[in-house]
């Protein structure tokens, strides 16, 4: 008989606007679309790569992912942004609309990582972006 496992509860949701203490200190923030971001982070977790808390905006369908300081100036991944310390939503297309942000922090259920690894995130975003574009994503 199936039991509740970590795999069944993959994200711990917190209805707060401020980062969980796990994030700790200042960070650069990667912004991605929520579909690309969640597929990439789930993929990283399956591979055992470091994934920390993320901020999800339900209004703009965006994810904000804290990564190491110093990432912003060398971040070049299409359809994403990386800014020092900013979790404000940058909306570029009319399809995502306007309106007030409705946001929640989510932490991987099994995470001991304060933040997501920027180099792993960059690599896996490029892989997942290509997979989604060609319909090969899991
Ligand atoms: Zn927003």
Describe the protein in words.
Helices cover 21% and strands 22% of the residues. Strand 3 (54-57) and strand 4 (62-67) form a beta hairpin. Helix 1 crosses helix 2. With 138 residues, it is an alpha+beta fold. It has one domain. It has two helices and six strands, in the order E-E-H-E-E-E-E-H. It has helices at residues 34-46, 118-133; strands spanning 11-14, 28-33, 54-57, 62-67, 81-84, 103-108. Residues 1-8 have low confidence and may be disordered. It has a six-stranded antiparallel sheet with strand order 1-6-3-4-2-5. It binds zinc ion. Zinc ion binds next to loops.
Question: What order do the helices and strands come in, and which of them pair?
Answer:
Blueprint: E1 11-14, E2 28-33, H1 34-46, E3 54-57, E4 62-67, E5 81-84, E6 103-108, H2 118-133
Antiparallel strand pairs: 1-6, 2-4, 2-5, 3-4, 3-6
Bound molecules: zinc ion.
What key phrases describe this protein's structure?
single chain, 138 residues, alpha+beta, 2 helices, globular, disordered N terminus, binds zinc ion
Class per helix and strand makeup: alpha+beta
* Strand count: 6
Bound compounds, please? zinc ion
Q: Treating each run of at least 4 consecutive H or I residues as one helix, how many helices? A: 2
- The share of residues in extended strands comes to 15-25%
Beginning-to-end CA distance, first to last residue: 26 Å
Main sheet properties:
6 strands, antiparallel
What is the ordering of alpha helices and beta strands? EEHEEEEH
């Amino acid at each position: 008989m199936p039991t509740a496992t970590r795999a069944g509860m993959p994200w711990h949701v917190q209805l707060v606007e401020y980062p969980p203490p796990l994030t700790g200190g200042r960070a650069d923030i990667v912004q991605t679309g929520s579909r690309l971001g969640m597929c990439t982070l789930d993929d990283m977790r399956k591979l055992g790569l470091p994934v920390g808390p993320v901020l999800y905006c339900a209004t703009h369908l965006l994810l904000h992912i804290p990564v190491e300081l110093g990432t912003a100036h060398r971040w070049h991944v299409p359809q994403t942004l990386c800014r020092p310390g900013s979790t404000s939503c940058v909306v570029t297309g009319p399809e995502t609309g306007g309106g007030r942000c409705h946001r929640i922090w989510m932490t991987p259920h099994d995470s001991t990582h304060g933040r997501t690894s920027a180099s792993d995130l960059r690599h896996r975003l490029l892989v997942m972006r290509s997979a989604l574009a060609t319909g090969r994503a899991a």
